[in-house]
Amino acid sequence: MSYNFFAYISRMRYIGRWSLMRNALDENIQEHSHMVAVIAHALGVIRRDVFGVDCDPEEYAAVALYHDSSEILTGDLPTPIKYHSRSIREAYSQVEQLACEKLLATLPEELRGAFGEVLSGEKAARCHDLVKAADKLSAYIKCVEERKAGNNEFLSAEKQTRAILERSELPEVRYFLEHFMPAFELTLDELGTIE
Predict the structure, then answer these.
(1) How many domains does the chain have?
(2) Helix, strand or coil for residue 16?
(3) What is the pTM of this model?
């Protein structure tokens, strides 16, 4: 029997992000999910190795890889709509849960438990704080990159996203902002070559 789960996951590249904005650099949810996974893993390492909190950074990375997979079936709802009101957010959360269930049904029964954990189960819940922070950091990086590409369309989003990140109570976010975000302002020449 053939199963469709990974064929669906492969289609993440067809779902564009920032659909209401003029983009200098197009981004799809597959690219976004990769960056969120990289950042979530980093935040987990920071949590464990800098702040001494026992955690599994690989678990954060796995949850982040799949954090937007429901959008394969729902599309990417623009943030101003998604967060317009509590009732819309709650309704959309139900739609996301249904999409996750539909995706899980495309796996063999013996794999559903493991993937269910990272899509919407206990692992997803346990990793929510850092994955959500990584998602916001990824959005902020996108805004910075758009500005650097000469696109003023993202200036307001950049300012708002930075303010949200600065209000974060997570020390891992403050650490990332302080130690890693400045490099995103540099050109390749300024970053230098790897010697």
Answers:
(1) 1
(2) strand
(3) 0.92
